[in-house]
Predict the 3D structure of the following.
Amino acid sequence: MIRILLADDEPSLLEVGKILLEHSGDIEVVTAKNGDEAMDLLRSEHLDAVISDYQMPGMDGITFLKKVRIRYPDMPFLMYTVLGQEDVVISALKNGADYYLPKGDDPGAEFNELATQVRRMVKNNALERALHESEERYRFIIENFNGIAFERKPDLAVIFAHGALERITGYPAEEINGKEISWDILVHQEDLPLIYDAMKEAERDPTLATDIEYRIVTKDGEVRYVQEFAHYLRKKSGKIYAVQGTLYDITERRQMTDQLIAQRDLGLGLAAARSLGEALDLCLTTACKVSEMSFGALYLENPRTEEFEIVRHTGFSDAFIASIRSLDKSTPICRTVAKGECIYSFFDEMKDFLGCEVSHARVQVVLVIPIVYNSSSIGFLLLGSNYPEEISDSSLMSLEVIAFQAGNAIARIWVEEMLAEGERSSGWGDEIRSKTQVD
């Protein structure tokens, strides 16, 4: 139902106008005898359009129009007044009237014309409002969309890509859109067959929409995992001419899954391990995998010398290992480890922590994770990387779990080896016996 405000100082015209406008059944008319009364009605009721006379007591139609435009700029406003007032017509249109109709000798035809114009204007107003709201919703979705919406050709040329493009890929939108850059600048070369295989499946099954996971390589060379949901646009012949879909960064989710699997596999491997060397290899390999760091060393405390000594290492040069093979418990790094605290630092800043001169290494960042058993630090993992990337919270938590697993396994194997050999002499056996409280 369209609700119209009809403002005129002639009671008879208000009565006739209300009857004629409401005749079709889709319009309801509210009447006002002057501009002030009309403004009060606009403030108090929901109205869709205004039809106003010009000559009214107090506030004329032009003044009324100006007030309406200030408060209700999009309200359809139709001026309906006497003939022969060209200056009023010009002023009305200049001040924002949407339509002007002179009063004549046929009120029925005139109000029918006014009703037609009102329906058109209200409908257009609603369409414009709906379009604006739709655009706002679209803008909100795009601005807050944490993935990428894309369309590409079968040959992987990019038609468009919007959303979190730069955050996920490192490429600004202007470097991708409209340039028909091939999607394979993003996709890891080893994973390209996954996309081509999905396309082949879609060619065989016209109803198919695909869901695949693959790796991309960002502009900075970082490898990230993404999940792609795609559907295929086809010509009448059934041939695919474009692929549309959305893509999300699932790197953290994949990392967490891989970390949980690594922890599980480590737990199973340590449970089956019957030698200290086997357990140490498992722990160091798993820690390097989870941290995605290429360099690693595992230190254990030697109670005879009061030092932490490297018992396993990988990636580091022999010269580097020789310079840090053992660390006195009084050094800053060992005091930090004794507190059970982790360290993540640029390697250059670690030199003071190490408390000794070290050989040149290809390492930019270092991560230290204490290996704790029975509330005591019995060793630590020292991991290094060429790339100064931050360690995610999930990776750090996983590494702490791995260090905990390592502490339990090392203590168990020490005790098993001690009992198997029947040793009761001083040394590491006595030390671990005191820590594990085994009689």
